[in-house]
Design goal:
This protein has 198 residues and is mainly α. Helices cover 52% and strands 5% of the residues. It folds into 2 domains: 130 residues, no CATH class; 53 residues, no CATH class.
Amino acid sequence: MLLAYLIPCSFLLGACSQPTNTSEVPSFSGPWAVEFSQAYEAASNPAAKEALSDSVLTDMEVSEVRGEQVSCLENLGCTVYELNTDGSASIIPPQTQGQTVEEITQKTNQLSTQCDTQTNWSVIAYLYTVTHMNPDNEDTYSLMAECLVRVGIEPEGYTSDQYRSDFENGTFIPYFENQETSEGQAFFRCNQDPVNAR
């Protein structure tokens, strides 16, 4: 499963509502200004809007919105063991006895989406992850290509276009399925932090 930073952020445009008073919209700056602006306009949760308003997400702000998402899920009967900004989570929905894994997963996703509508957790988590992993908002495919060369998985001269093609063709799936191997671990490090991975 690829991590959040590889997911296009075009979803931020999908449900944007225009502010009723444009003078109240903050002035966003920095490499991720457009994404913060779109997320701010789309957000409905006051805590999320406040966190987004200065184009920076602090650990405390993220923790607050995460807490709201956890509380919402727990109020719906879920048990939340883990909820991470990279998109990974361990959540058990209520009344799972007799249900298949697919049914449990579907229910978990449904309840998570229901809470996310209230908390805007997924947008906060996404922006927190990408701004920490790629602070200058450089092309993700170029960063990954450079990282894979740096860690020795791909040869010198490996390009962003080659990475894009390999990514779309599922070339890297074996690395995710075999993360205990040296190449799997190296790929995982790049996927976690393509700028700093060694």
